Amino acid sequence: MKIVKIDNSNADKAAKLVADFRVTLRSYKGIRSQPDVKAGREELTEFLEAGYPLFAAEDNDRFVGYIACRIDEPCLWVEHIYVCEEFRRKGAASMLFEKAEEIARSMGEDTVFNFVHPNNDGMIGFLRSKGYTVLNMIEIRKPYKGEDLKTTIHVENNYFDY
After folding, report:
1. Are strands 2-5 and 75-83 parallel, antiparallel or unpaired?
2. How far is 50 from 85, CA to CA, in rounded Å?
3. What is the pLDDT, as a whole number, of residue 117?
4. Which of the residues 8, 37, 40, 72 has an alpha carbon 20 to 30 A from that of 19?
5. Cα separation of 71 and 73, whole Å?
6. What is the structure's pLDDT at 148?
7. Closest CA to 85 of 93, 77, 73
């Protein structure tokens, strides 16, 4: 397995991964959906045009995972990291994440900032295994019309619907 830079010449190979990532994210809220490869390609195009560092884990000429980073100096944010289910726990995510940490170090930083869905126990466990344990921010919004929130999360003196 190796890490390759995603650019316009190979973005079509990565579009299915982005589409699958979106399906996975929706599933954390109980929403069933189908992968939209065209939308995945459009998202990659937006990332490329914005100059996001994008990398894929490649195994036998197949992209099996990807990472999309955003540089907001002095911080490097992992916007997406996704690995196909059959390649999880085989080192792909670690290789991709190491690439993000390498970029952060080249910027003089010693950490990467991560957006993680609260129900994504796999990713939270992965980050913990890499030493990432500090809750940095909370994103707050109004409920969507018709949204059925079933959980409350407690952080310090605050309670949030989820």
Report:
1. unpaired
2. 28
3. 82
4. 72
5. 6
6. 82
7. 93
The pair of structure tokens assigned to 18 is 């982005």
Residue 6, pLDDT score: 97
Cα(1)–Cα(60) distance, rounded to whole angstroms? Answer: 7
Are 69 and 53 in contact by the 8 Å Cβ rule? The answer is yes
pLDDT tens-place string over residues 11-47: 999 999 999 999 988 888 778 889 899 999 999 999 9
What span, in angstroms and rounded, lies between the C-alpha atoms of 101 and 159? 33
d(CA 138, CA 157): 13
How would you classify the pairing of strands 62-72 and 54-59? antiparallel
* Rounded Cα gap, residues 162 and 30, in angstroms: 12
Widest CA span in the chain: 50
The H-or-E segment that residue 117 falls in is none
pLDDT tens digits for 96-140? 999 999 999 999 999 999 988 887 889 999 999 999 999 888 888
* Global confidence as pTM: 0.86
> Please, what is the Cα angle at 45 between 49 and 90, to 5 degrees?
115
Give the whole-angstrom CA distance, residue 72 versus residue 53.
12
Signed CA dihedral, 65, 43, 124, 134: sign only: positive
- How far apart are the C-alpha atoms of 114 and 117, rounded to whole Å? 10
